[in-house]
What we know:
The protein is an alpha/beta fold and 206 residues long.
Amino acid sequence: MGLIHIDLFTSLDGVAQAPGGPEEDTDDSFAFGGWQAPLIDDVVGGQIAEGMEGMDALLLGRRTYDIFASYWPHQSGFIAELFNRIPKYVASRLDPDLEWAGSTLLGPDVVTAIRELRGRHENVHVIGSLDLVQTLFSEKLFDRLNLWVYPILLGRGKKVFADGVVPSNLRLIEPVIASPKGAVMQRYELLEGTPRTGDMTEVVEG
């Protein structure tokens, strides 16, 4: 059974809209497109590259797919070669033309189609694609959550947990590392069950 990884870059207040560039996503007059660029450093770059080892498929929402399809086929290097080589699966309510080689549109039953990807691939990565991510959260249809949290507050913008989530247990699976510019990588796995509760007075007094 393969794993579905969600890879997200977010501000400290949870905004994950348009980290990559000014024109990436200007919905609701978002003024901070490209906020990640000044905070990238070699540590984050290495973490991203290491996290992609073993990736054998991409799962993307339509907007992120369009951004990637217009950029990566014209680039070189490790990430470009990987993205151009592996299969790309696209979740969309429309019927777009998918011209990037190796691209497939998922059927109308997106949840079922994504579950089936686990039987075909070892490591499927979802990058960005915030609308799709909300579906994955609500269905508990992911195995790893990889967050890079940056030391800025953006206030307005599309957020990682915009629609709330199903109560879930996560486990931190490797030490938290802060980059020189203050980005903190947190890598979690989804566990079974729902969060437990207790009485803190018993903990403090015990």
